[in-house]
Predict the 3D structure of the following.
Amino acid sequence: MPTRIPRPEDFTHLSPSLETSLVFPEIPETTTTILILFHGLGDSEVPFASFAKNLNLPGVLAISVRGVSPLPPALLGLPDSEAASPTRHFHWGDDLTLSSSTGDLDPDPGFSKAEQLVLGKLIRETLVENCGWETNDILLFGFGQGGSLALGLASRIRQGAKVVDITEGDEPTEKAFKGAVSIGGPLPTSMISTISAREKSRTPILACHGRSSESLGEDALDVLRSEFIDVREVKWKKSEDSMPKNKDEMLPIMQFLAERLRGW
């Protein structure tokens, strides 16, 4: 079908299962790329919509997505007054489990629900089927657990969506996104195909982390390189994995996005 610019009403059917915040370019008709943003554990779509607005990428429609499940107030340690209010803290996992080795929240709680809603409903049903876009028109950006989801979706997409043709059989209709950026989020093992002869994903990856990162160390980067053809690493001078705070930290991200906007 012909490609058309998505309208706000195209996303209303996703609610309440998946809430989104849209940031259109100044002239919506100039849209040539879609950027989907995934916040970190315990955050919401609102700050990332502001981040996308500040990026002000030309010709880019940004879609900031809310995590698929709320965090329990008890886990957040909120006062009773705030705990009784509608939550503003969400996560992407199927469950909240503690790691047996560290006692911290498991970094790979399973992402089946998020995959079904984001890849199945938002991307394939809404953007591709209803609005005529291709997956290689779409960029992914995530922080922390949201970065893991972005990498996981980029891993999953290489399997393609199957369409049936009575003369040629099943054939994948999609293979890669335009690019994916993860800040401090590793590729979840649960989102790596178990097919032994799988090909590497063609989605270009930018993995950003602090110099003392516990989530994106060498082992996690080696996993990325084994699953993706094109992996670029950015190691910041700061020790922690946090959102970029200055121009120097933001520059490699902007360079990657600019390159991807010029590519397929």
Observations:
- Helices lie at 45-55, 73-76, 80-83, 112-130, 145-156, 218-227, 247-262.
